Amino acid sequence: GVVPGLNKPTTTKKVEEVIAEVFGAERAQLVWGSGTGALRWALMSTVKPGDAILVHEAPIYPTTQASVESMSLRPIRADYNDPASIAAVIAAHKDEIKGVLVQHTRQKIDDRYDLETVITQIKSLLPDVPVVTDDNYAALKVKKIGCQAGAVLASFSCFKTLGPEGVGVVIGKKKYVDRVEKCQYSGGSQIQGYQAMAVLRGL
Q: d(Cα 45, Cα 106) in Å, to the nearest integer?
């Protein structure tokens, strides 16, 4: 269902407002595609095809790699475990980097970086560049997800928080979540009310 004027189910809108409040964010949007879909929409709302993005010096998660390739994004790698590496890579590519991706959970067995520390350093060096986080496996298991640690958007799968399969969350700054919502215009793109309620039950 799509309610005239709201363009989404009323219950879904209410649930999104609750999720935003739970995580202290300006807005949240439920999307199809689980965490992969949520992260894909987060990237699409913050960077343009062909842009260079800063990523960790580690293998990119396969489904995230598919999103990177589909947008022809150009990864620039820095070791997030090493503040000196982050500073050096940003200094060398400051004018190129248009976005930042930080995965909350470990990508390599020896990863030890603190999400908020990494985001704070990157924002100090690239204050106008949007930071997006992949919070799959971390949401509700840590004190802060990306949008609470300084990122403009966080993304995760509702299945990882005991909600329904196939539904993801994009959450953070209203400016960017609005862009995601604008692309979810059709009725077939909407998360229905009963599915949204299942997300809340999982939380």
A: 25
